[in-house]
Amino acid sequence: ANKPDSQDICFVPNGDYTSVIKKFRPESFKEGDIIDLNGKKLGKHDGIINYTIGQRRGVKISSPEPLYVVDINMEKNTITIGPRDSLVVKKILLRDLNILGEEKDFVDSIHIKVRSTGKLLKANIDIEANNASVEILEEETGISPGQACVFYSKDNHGHKVLGGGWIHKTENKNLST
Questions:
Q1: Three-state DSSP state, 162
Q2: Which of 89, 165, 69 is nearest to 126 (CA)?
Q3: What are the residues facing 95 on neighbouring strands?
């Protein structure tokens, strides 16, 4: 409990995660194109390892409006950039569900959280076996595979946890993942 939070790869010697990635994925350091949402080449990047979805700083493309990393395509070695609204995720697919609520709890829209400190988002959930499809009814960005998604309902006593699962895939017309 007294240990500080870890935001990095804790098992890498000296915190030098780039040397590990260079060993196992050397193509991550290869120069490639930065393109816009229409595929127009805007510039060059110095390796996809240096970028993350939602990143704004360090993109090095001049524009009157702020531009964000919208997609990282490993196969094509491209970074796609666009305005903030191009990061909105409206649908996520979950795996490895843990359902605590009853079937009737999921008939109407409920709330979800995709970050422990994030806001509650209204959503519709379609559960099938150990998987779920979640339609987010509000705008949210920065949702990525590997994150948890927790389901909540609200009554007169407050919020009740109904279960959750792991985000397997996000759907956004701009993403290749």
A1: strand
A2: 165
A3: 166
For the beta sheet containing 32-35, the strands, ordered from the edge strand earlier in sequence to the opposite edge, are 41-45, 32-35, 78-82, 68-73
pLDDT tens digit sequence for 87-142: 999 999 999 999 998 888 888 889 999 988 889 999 999 999 999 999 999 989 87
Got the DSSP string for 65-102?
A: S--EEEEEETTTTEEEEE-GGGG---EEEEEEEEE-S-
**3-class DSSP assignment, residue 48:** helix
DSSP secondary structure, 102-140, as one string: -GGGGSS-EEEESSTTSPPEEEEEEEETTEEEEEESS--
Report the largest interatomic distance among the alpha carbons of the chain, rounded to a whole angstrom. 56
pTM of the predicted model as reported, rounded to 2 decimal places: 0.70
Are 74 and 123 in contact by the 8 Å Cβ rule? The answer is: no
